[in-house]
Amino acid sequence: MSVFKRVRNTFRLLKSVDMDQLAKINQQIDLSEAMKTLGALDERQLKGLMKMLKTKRKKGQSDLPPIDGDFYNLDLKLTGEQRNLQMEVRNFMEDEIRPLVNDHWNRAKFPMEIIEKFKKLNITGVPYKGYGCPNLPFLMEGVIAQEIARVDVSISTFFGVHSGLAMGSIYLCGSEEQKQEWLPKMQKLEKIGAFGLTEPNVGSGVAGGLETSCKFDGENWILNGQKKWIGNATFADVIVIWARDEDSNQVKGFLVKKENPGFKAEKMEDKMALRIVQNALITLDNCRVPESDRLQNANSFKDTAKVLRMTRAGVAWQAVGCARGAYESALKYTRKREQFGRPIASYQLIQNHLVEMLSNLTAMQTLVFRLSEMQDAGMLSDEHASLAKVFCSMRTRDVVSRAREVLGGNGILLEYDVARFVADAEAIYSYEGTKEINSLIVGRAITGYSAFVS
Ligand SMILES: Cc1cc2nc3c(=O)[nH]c(=O)nc-3n(C[C@H](O)[C@H](O)[C@H](O)COP(=O)(O)OP(=O)(O)OC[C@H]3O[C@@H](n4cnc5c(N)ncnc54)[C@H](O)[C@@H]3O)c2cc1C
Question: What is the pTM of this model?
Fold first, then answer.
């Protein structure tokens, strides 16, 4: 249809409008003036006007729905107080942590100054009773892990190692005296903890294969061996070391202080994930530990496994936080980034990626919520925690890779956060039990057959 025909039709349309409607339009624009102006336009100007009218009005960012990775409003299941704490952690992470993570990740440095800032939040040792700990439900420990990982997985790993693995070992396996000595100071982050189980030659097979040995010489325990990947260990005050007793062949736990003679922690360099976390290779060379620093209630690997069961749920929540951070960053980016004259979020293929991300994220969130409910009800078994760890760490890999995809080239630049989530998802996938090992735990539970090779 020619431009002239369209303008003529518009005039006809206006003529068909009844008096009331005309009066309303007239209140908003001076119709006779508009007609005069239209009539005075030449063909080129009319064409330009028609093109302008055809172009859809661009939506401003403020017209768009809020960016929120909690699509099923699971937050509404929290009490008012719990929600307040969640928001306090979120604001803290946005204001204090987000501005410094990419730089520290790039330089593989841990921002020591944040420990002082974290103290104010009082979120250490969340589920433990006594020793100055908040004694909140496990659900809140999970929610907090998600909030921290949503901004940075390294910081949530620092926290998980200290508050979960190290404090948890003392809480579950320490004597009352040991708990009194360490937990209040660790709760206030005055003393930092690490957890040393994995070794250079033994990862998945730690249950039966620990090479680090301990031997009682009548006065002290003598520890020999190496531990690999130990988070926080370059600066931790106390490192929980798991070793096999040369006499009884049972696994025992020890509270090794950083100044112990015979203890050495060397930073592991050149990681491509969780670069802020200070992982160490620990060497124990005739390291002497007094009986008073042996975890008094850790008598076999079953006790070590209790700690892992308690913290594995937290790792599943961490995966959810990582996926949520990547999804929200991707959604924000696609609404701003324009190609072919429109935001890429308006394209069907991009929306498909976003919806797939959100589906995975929502499935993970509902799963970990139920997992924590079971933990709070005392119903959590190894296989429940393992299933959540397997599912969430796998789905998170999928979410972050789609996030990276919709960012195009910027998906591999640290500046846009998604690249960091992509790398860090790889560490979540492997630590606290690989996909295979956690699958074998679930497989054993559902089939009744153990497929572990002994
Ligand atoms: C960033 C990071 C931080 C970590 N922090 C800590 C820490 O603070 N403290 C600590 O103690 N440890 C820590 N770890 C160690 C972590 O728990 C181990 O990496 C993990 O348990 C796997 O062990 P591995 O790397 O030696 O792999 P391996 O055990 O050598 O496994 C290699 C591959 O073989 C597969 N495999 C092994 N056995 C079987 C089987 N029977 N059947 C089928 N497949 C099998 C595994 O699934 C995996 O795919 C950390 C690791 C990383 C990457």
Answer: 0.87
